[in-house]
Specification:
Elements lengths: L1 H21 L13 H4 L9 H16 L2 H9 L9 H4 L9 H25 L17 H16 L4 H17 L5 H18 L3 H17 L2
Length: 221
């Protein structure tokens, strides 16, 4: 009996890491696809010229911002597809578009899990003064901006230019707020692009994309 209990204990210990990974739930992505630790370059070495340029860019952005710019960037920092409402129109709201809301919530959740794993891997410190505990590289906001812009612009192609313009501003505001370096934003944008490409080849994504497209068509935005 003792041997059976010991064997059961060892089996439970062996499967524990897999259970931990399974807890990181994806909707449209799969663990390791894409693998940002392979596909992205590492963050700049702390003593490199690029790191110094990153630090100088953040310092200049923070020093040069007005209080109005700071407050607007702060107010518009929620990672939700509805930050695109100024580009699309007043009817682009969660209340009118529950299917689209749920679809982009799943996209955003996948982006967060993907990027959080990369942040843990590199563990780059945030810019001085940033009140954030998670790593700086890559930027999750930039990743969400890129992925959501790619997907939303396919749902509403006539708004593509305005969507991407707003997405870039959303991502770059993280520098203005002193929360990310430019290299965080660049790699975050790449991460979101990679994620969107992988998602678009998933059958569940294709099904939910079609449902969101039908809802947006009915809404006549």
């Amino acid at each position: 009996m003792n041997r059976k209990i010991a064997l059961l204990f060892l089996l439970c210990a062996a499967v524990a890491p897999a259970a931990t990974l399974a807890a990181q739930h994806y909707n449209y992505l799969k663990p390791g696809a894409p693998d940002l630790t392979v596909l992205l370059p590492p963050p700049p070495d702390v003593f490199s010229a690029q790191a110094r340029a990153d630090e100088a860019a953040v310092a200049a952005a923070v020093a040069g911002r007005s209080r109005t710019q700071f407050l607007e960037a702060q107010d518009d920092s929620a990672r939700t597809v509805f930050f695109y409402a100024p580009s699309i129109g007043d009817g682009f709201t969660p209340q009118r578009l529950p299917v689209t809301t749920a679809f982009f919530a799943r996209v955003g959740s996948d982006i967060q899990v993907l990027v959080d794993n990369a942040k843990l891997y590199w563990n780059r410190p945030r810019p001085n003064g940033a009140q954030k505990t998670r790593g700086s590289y890559p930027s999750g906001h930039a990743a969400f901006a890129a992925a959501s812009a790619i997907i939303l612009s396919q749902l509403i192609p006539e708004k593509r230019d305005a969507i991407f313009t707003q997405a870039r501003t959303f991502a770059e505001n993280r520098i203005l707020l002193g929360l990310h370096y430019p290299s965080d934003i660049a790699s975050g944008w790449t991460a979101g692009t990679l994620a969107a490409y992988v998602m678009m080849h998933d059958s569940a994504f294709e099904r939910d994309f079609a449902a969101a497209k039908a809802e947006l068509h009915r809404a006549k935005l």
